[in-house]
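User: Mind C-alpha cell order:
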Amino acid sequence: MNTDNTNENLMQTYGRLPVAFNRGEGSYLYDTQGRKYLDALTGLAVCGLGHAHPKVTAAVQKQAATLVHTSNLYIVPEQERLATRLCKISQMDRVFFGNSGAEANEAAIKLARLHGNQRGIKNSLIVVMEGSFHGRTMATLTATGNRKVHAGFEPLLSGFVRTPFGDVAALEAIADNNTDVVAVLVEPILGEGGIVIPPDGYLENIRKICDDNNWLLMLDEVQTGNGRTGEFFAYMHTNILPDVVTTAKGLANGFPIGACLARGEAANVLQPGNHGSTFGGNPLVCAAAHAVLDVLEEDDLIARADILGKRLLQGITAGLEGDNRIRDIRGMGLMLAIDMDSDCTELVRQALDKQLLINVTQEKTIRLLPPLTLSDSEADQLVDSLVKLISASA
C-alpha cells in the first residue's frame, strides 16, 4: 500500500503520515506491517470508545443486515428514537441530523440567518470567535477564526462579526454598537485552536448578553461533546443552556453523523424545504450512535473521562517539571494540551516512530484526545511515552 502521499488518484488535500492502519482494538491501532500503536488521538476525537468496540460492532452488523438507508422522505424509527434520547440528555427540543460537524454547524448558521430574517433583520450577523474552527464548507470556513483556513477561498461569505475568544468586554461592545446581530457561535473550548479553555464564567456571561439582546446562543460541541470533557456536553459544567448546540465527532464512534439540536423558538425555525440531508440520520449511523450512548451510560465513561483526564494531567505535569520549553499544560477531561515555546510539529513523526499517535495544532501545541475507554495502565503508558518523547527532543 502506498503511504507516501503521492497517489496520483487522490486529491492532495492531506499531508499524510507514512503509515497505513488495517486493524484497531481498544486503545490501539495496528499498521500493515503488524506494528502496534497507542492511539492518543482517536481519529481526531471521533472514536471515543476506542477501536472496534464490540457493542458498536454488533449494533452495526445487526442493522446492516436489516436496513441501511431509506432517505428522509420517510419516517426513520431509529432516528426518531435517537432524537428523543439526545433531547433528553441535552434539554433541547428538536434535532436535525447531517453527516458531519461541518454540516451540523452549517445547519446552525442557516437556522440563525432564517431566524433573523423572520424577525425582519435582512442582513443578519453572527458573532464568531478568533481562533475558532467550525468546518470547511464555505459558511463554516468563513465562521472559522483562522486566516490560514480562509486563504485562497475569497470572497468569503458576509454576515460574520469576529471577536477575541474569552473577551466578554469585546462582546458587550458589539452588542452596544450593532443591531443586526442575531446569534453568537462559540466553542466552549477551542479544539483546533489549541485546547484553549476560557475564563470561568465565560459561557454564563455570553448567555446573559444573548438574553439581554435577544440573540441565539449557539455552541459548537463537535469536539467537546459526547462525554469528552467529563460531561456529555461541555456546557453542562455550567448552569446555562444554549439555544442551539451542535455535535458530531464522538457520537457514532467513526460512523458519519452530525446533529444540530435546538430548543424553544430556535427549535421551530427550520421547516420543510429550508434544509435537508440525503444520508443524514440513516438507520445504520443511528444504530451506531445508540450503541455509543448505551456504552457511555452503562460503563459510566463520562465520569471516567474526568478521572482519566486528571490522571494524565498530573502525570504529564510531574514528568515535564523543570523543562523550560513548556509554556503550559492544561486540559478538561480527555482534551489535553501541552504548549511548547517553539514549533514542535516534528514531534508527530517522532511519536509515530515510537508507536504513539499524537497531534500538534497551532504549530506549538501538542494535542491529546485519547479514548474514554483508556485503562489506567494505558494512561500511564501514554504519560511515560510522551514525557520521554518530549524530553528527548531537547
Notes: The mean pLDDT is 97. DSSP finds twelve helices and 15 strands in the chain. The longest strand covers residues 326-332.
